[in-house]
Design a protein that fits this description.
Blueprint: E1 4-9, H1 19-30, E2 34-37, H2 48-64, E3 73-79, H3 81-92, E4 98-103, E5 119-125, H4 133-143, E6 147-150, H5 163-176, H6 180-235, E7 244-246, H7 252-266, H8 272-288, E8 290-296, E9 299-307, E10 310-316, H9 325-337, E11 341-345, H10 349-357, E12 361-367, E13 374-379
């Protein structure tokens, strides 16, 4: 264990050999503490404020020679005016590891009671003429300082009428304040308080970060939702004949993608390789055909292609079907051609139903040699 130091600060006409300081010293000596007494070296006086001023001035030089940092803990046991002397020296020398055992403080002591001062405990009598008992109780309550109050006792913590009662009071004060076990209890409480404060700070920081993260995620989600809504609004298909226009060469790749995906999905009864095999040929035919496309927001959603009266095909992109795009395309081609012929695989029920609505009439049924599938010849 590192060295520990106890310094006794007597009061006026209350030396270090008087009961409170004497038994405190014995307790700490038995516990292995180095013990020294503060020698004011000045005459006693009734003016406590003036006395404390001279005592601090006298002790300042002597205390500067003590290597306080060599001690794990430094204990100031202070009586009466010694409470002011000890606390002032702690502040002026900027000491960091001091604990106070405060016996019978005076009114001037109050201005040195702060939230950062380590006070193990304080003892005072209800009849002490050097301090206001109620003011002391309020100060201790505010700063969470343990106060031992001795009823009917004066500044020496003695009632003066019952020696046994005075001794019992002395025992109580020494056990509660002037014993190393009381100091260790205080230090454990202090350490727990520090840990609790660290934990609370860490929790608050974690909650702050979580809140900031949640707010960030919320803002990002709101931003994405706004972007999605904007995108959705931009991509919403509003069916109108004005969106039908003539084919341009730049459209060809987009048209062929719609053609290939549509055939593979809607006419799955024909092997996929058939459509891939005929892709280039159909692309050439479409390029040479009369073609109308349905375009909106810069995107093509369908097209119709015809070589003279023979309909090469009509296709609507997936996700845009059953909206009326096919009908608009067919109406445009009907207006241009006047007569239209088409062939549809009988297994393609969707296409058969569409052409029936468009008033195409069956003229013949045959087998497509390329696929072996039955197809119906239609005319409008």
């Amino acid at each position: 264990m590192k060295n520990r130091l106890l310094i006794l600060f007597p009061g006026i006409r209350y030396s270090v050999d008087c009961p409170l300081l004497y038994y405190t010293r014995l307790n700490f000596e038995y516990a292995g503490y180095e013990c020294i007494s503060a020698d004011y070296g000045i005459d006693e006086a009734d003016d406590l404020s003036a006395f404390s001023e001279r005592a601090v001035e006298k002790l300042r030089g002597a205390f500067e020679n003590i290597k306080f940092d060599d001690y794990e803990a430094v204990i100031f046991a202070e009586k009466s005016v010694g409470t002011v002397v000890g606390m002032r020296l702690e502040d002026e020398l900027n000491l960091k590891n001091v604990y106070h055992l405060v016996y019978t403080p005076i009114d001037e002591t109050y201005k040195y009671l702060t939230t950062t001062r380590r006070i193990v405990g304080m003892a005072a009598g209800t009849e002490d003429k050097y301090t206001d008992a109620k003011a002391l109780q309020a100060a201790c309550k505010k700063l969470d300082i343990e106060l031992i109050t001795i009823k009917n006792a004066g500044h020496r913590l003695e009632a003066g009428k019952d020696v046994t009662a005075d001794i019992s009071a002395l025992v109580k004060v020494i056990n509660k304040i002037g014993d190393p076990s009381a100091l260790e209890k205080y230090r454990k409480t202090e350490a727990k308080k520090i840990e609790d404060e660290k934990a609370a700070k860490a929790k608050a920081e974690a909650e702050k970060l979580a809140k900031e993260k949640a707010e960030k995620e919320k803002k990002e989600a709101e931003k994405k939702a706004a972007e999605d809504a904007k995108k959705s609004a931009e991509n919403t298909i509003t069916i109108h004949k004005n969106h039908v226009r003539k084919y341009a060469s730049k459209d060809l790749d987009e048209l062929m993608e719609i053609w290939l995906i549509g055939n593979i999905k809607e006419q799955s009864f024909i092997p996929k390789k058939y459509w891939n095999k005929n892709f280039t040929e159909i692309k050439r035919i479409v390029e040479l055909s009369d073609v109308f496309v349905y375009e909106q927001h810069g995107k093509i959603y369908g097209f119709i292609s015809s070589m003279e009266e023979e309909l090469v095909g009509i296709y609507v992109a997936e996700g845009a079907r059953s909206l009326g795009i096919g009908k608009l395309l067919m109406d445009k081609m009907k207006d241009k051609m006047g007569i239209l012929e088409a062939s549809v695989y009988t297994k393609n029920k969707r296409a058969m139903k569409f052409f029936e609505k468009e008033e195409f009439q069956a003229t013949n049924i045959r087998i497509d040699e390329a696929t072996g599938e039955e197809e119906v010849l239609l005319k409008w």
